[in-house]
Q: What sequence folds into this?
């Protein structure tokens, strides 16, 4: 497995172990992650959203994600873009997340 693919895989693992403090589901399965891009120099770009623009735990959550991804072996640099377009809705969740939250 090349470095870029390994780093992407490790980032998904990190995101699957990062939980929205107000919802008992990880940020990846919640559908908050819109894009993960690792370039040939192992620089990571992550585009994500929040369940609500006024999320009171946003700073803590974004800090946790930033620290965790920077700790992934091989990551050279990290940039996170927080976006609200398209707005998040429950249809972005995985089937597993919907089941966990009682939407199925």
A:
């Amino acid at each position: 497995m090349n470095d870029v693919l390994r780093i992407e895989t490790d980032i998904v693992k990190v995101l699957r172990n990062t939980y929205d403090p107000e919802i008992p589901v990880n940020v990846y399965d919640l559908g908050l992650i819109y894009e993960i891009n690792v370039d040939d120099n192992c620089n990571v770009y992550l585009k994500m959203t929040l369940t609500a623009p006024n999320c009171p735990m946003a700073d803590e959550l974004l800090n946790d994600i930033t620290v965790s991804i920077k700790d992934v072996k091989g990551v050279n640099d990290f940039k996170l873009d927080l976006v609200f377009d398209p707005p998040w809705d429950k249809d972005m969740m995985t089937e597993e997340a919907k089941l966990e939250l009682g939407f199925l």
Observations:
- Residues 36 and 46 are 5 Å apart (CA to CA).
